Amino acid sequence: MLCNGKLEGRWDSMSGSYGAPAAGVAPRAQMPPQPVVEATRPQWFAVQTRYRFEKRVVAQLNRKRCEVYLPLLTEHHSWSDRQQVVTVPLFPGYAFVHIDRSHDARRAVLQTAGLIGFVSFGGMVAAVPTKQIEDLKLLLQEKGLFSLHPFVHAGQRVRIRGGCLHGLEGVLVQHEKSKLLISIESIQRSLAIEIQGYELELI
To answer: In 28-167, where do the E strands start and end?
Structure first.
């Protein structure tokens, strides 16, 4: 089953249910026509998985030909008799899927062993901005020095100019001028990176 399909309605909750029009809301037939391209365009969404089921969930979604992204961190483990390099989820319990809002796409994701559901706020499933996913991929690809940081949303947003992290956007930490925070709002997680030596511009 493909993860992308025809748009069928408004996405209302974490379970992906489509509700009836609320009081005072015009029926669908009276609503202004929406552009088909915009309606069916895939978007990124955060999903929650069971503990240590992230890679299994991703493998299953890949078999369904669903585009999925699991940020991984490389760790070096040492024992008295051996050393091993392992990859672990950067954000344990979370992954990101790239689908449209159709019933078929949602169902294909939800019918995955080990997957709990879509991350939602106030009962509404919110899309993850593509820029946040792109910045996260860039940071991990370039192996930039970063660390987990308490979630921060508000602050002066800046963009890195030049260098291997060109175009990376984040929030400048006011009390630590040499750090930039990359935040994924949907899962309330932030990463702090060292920006000493980089040129910044205000956004």
So the answer is: 43-49, 67-69, 72-78, 83-89, 94-99, 115-118, 120-121, 124-125, 146-149, 157-161
**Three-state SS at 41:** coil
* Same domain, yes or no: 113 and 45: yes
Query: The tokens 């860039």 sit on which residue?
Result: 138
Of the three residues 96, 128, 160, the one that is the final residue of a domain is: 128
Global confidence as pTM: 0.78
CB 118 within 8 Å of CB 79? no
Domain that holds residue 19: 1-128
C-beta of residue 105 within 8 angstroms of C-beta of residue 147: no
pLDDT tens per residue across all 203 residues of the chain: 556 543 333 464 333 333 333 344 444 444 444 444 455 799 999 999 999 999 999 999 999 999 999 999 988 888 778 888 889 999 999 999 999 999 999 999 999 999 999 999 888 998 999 999 999 999 998 876 788 899 987 788 999 999 999 999 999 986 766 789 999 999 999 999 988 888 999 99
Residues 124 and 134 in one domain: no
The residue to which tokens 């790239």 are assigned: 98
